[in-house]
Predict the 3D structure of the following.
Amino acid sequence: MRLEVNLNGSSVDFEADPTTTLLDWLRSRGLTGTKEGCGIGVCGACTVLAGGRPVSACLTLIGTLDGETLLTVEGVAETDPALIDAFVECEAMQCGICTPGQVMAAAAAKRAGVGAAADVDSEIREWLDGNLCRCTGYETIIAAVRTYLER
């Protein structure tokens, strides 16, 4: 199947089996920042933005994304380094498996205008829901996202 997507700001025209997962397609293009944590769409490690909304790349089929705008953690690192800086500054990562998904959830939250409410930490928790971390206890991740949203 012939497809075209905007990937991290660049138009990509390609041939692909429409049943290939977005995760496998990204990795075949050398974009290895998106991680596979569980493979069944419950951990959030493989989160990518498709049309500005978070999707599980391990479940999303590339054939459903023709014409979409895709943003990966590599794209965020290039276009929004303040987000990556906030994670580093707040020491919001340990093993790193969940970090790309957490970063992408934060990017989606900012694009949705999160941060204007009085209880911003509650809003952040809602956006991070579904992104599992077994190392940090979440407080440093929430601090990183809050720091990012305040900038």
Remarks:
- The two ends are 42 Å apart (CA to CA).
- The domain at 76-150 is CATH 1.10.150.120 (DNA polymerase; domain 1).
- The beta strands are 2-7, 10-15, 47-50, 53-56, 69-71.
- The mean pLDDT is 95.
